[in-house]
């Protein structure tokens, strides 16, 4: 467990992310997602609030499950239009010193050599402030755009992801020795060839001889995030992730997930205490309870029910337009995101959700708990999650942009700091040190990436 509470801003380089309809809220600036100055402002504010990182979700493809076409997704701006988040990082890094950047990349739709190079480059340019959110993706439409016959089944996606990570680990951790670069003008040697190894990887999905094209970056392997929620996905996360993004609407769901994950981490020979847990949360804060409640009501009034159902239909690969609004959601094992399904069918056995209730609840931040109140009330709740539930931090989900972030930083962070829950100053210089403590710029020795080739 961490010494203090860590914070990520969970966002997307798009108009709408997980609070569908909020772009209509008076003053909302989501349309500025194309504007570099919007993101540099976000970076400055997040760093002022002591955030560890800005965490970017990302998808390829479009939400076309709802009603069998993409018209709702286009009309309501559901994660479309969106731009690639990685290109925002240099601009945001330029105006900050310690803030990290978690980039979502799909192991299903990229190649590990290419990805290892991209993330090494960003880790160099940011002095070690990069995390890789490893996803296997879920939209059928993404596969079609990339010329594939269809979405791979989940088992195959995770098998490919395992091999993908083996290639990345070999390139990041085992290809270049720390002292390979000599830069010796007298000897005419820039890099000592005896200290740079090929990786000669030949697997079922990838063949990569190497060596890595980049010299070692400050963290070598970027901080590894994952959000696997199916049985196979949890095993993948337990093997690879240093931090997991928990997507459960109830405390009970979060606790069960954490217990299960710690057992799985131990089975992979890793210290179960070393994995960090970040539930998503939607804080809605006001100077008084009345102001906070009024904000909550006005946010709820903007929820776009159709749009939210279209987003969820893509998450779980089930056309919710085909169901009666008062029909109960029945559990299925989905090839898309199991966590979203489980949030409504498993996280609380005493509650059954109708389609209508799911749409109302998920309209603000998707499947995470919503906390409404004064800075004091919200800090009480955060303190409870940190000290009683044992989480390491939160992925803060936005409703209105940038007000959800600025409200949080200006109102809640001072209260969290006064309680010693959020640090006053960053520790270390890399993102891994920010999360796991100074001196921990590199992966722990019990991580599988450190096993010899
Ligand atoms: C909280 C959370 C966030 C996710 N974010 C993304 C994302 O940004 N992009 C993406 O392609 N997939 C994302 N995924 C989906 C995962 O990539 C994965 O494909 C999917 O969850 C299926 O695996 P699972 O059932 O084991 O979770 C996310 C899943 C969860 C639970």
From TrEMBL:
Keywords: Flavoprotein, FMN, Monooxygenase, Oxidoreductase
Entry GO MF terms: monooxygenase activity; oxidoreductase activity, acting on paired donors, with incorporation or reduction of molecular oxygen
Taxonomy, superkingdom: Archaea
Any Pfam family: Bac_luciferase
Family: Belongs to the NtaA/SnaA/DszA monooxygenase family.
PANTHER family assigned: ALKANESULFONATE MONOOXYGENASE-RELATED, C2H2 FINGER DOMAIN TRANSCRIPTION FACTOR (EUROFUNG)-RELATED
Protein name: LLM class flavin-dependent oxidoreductase
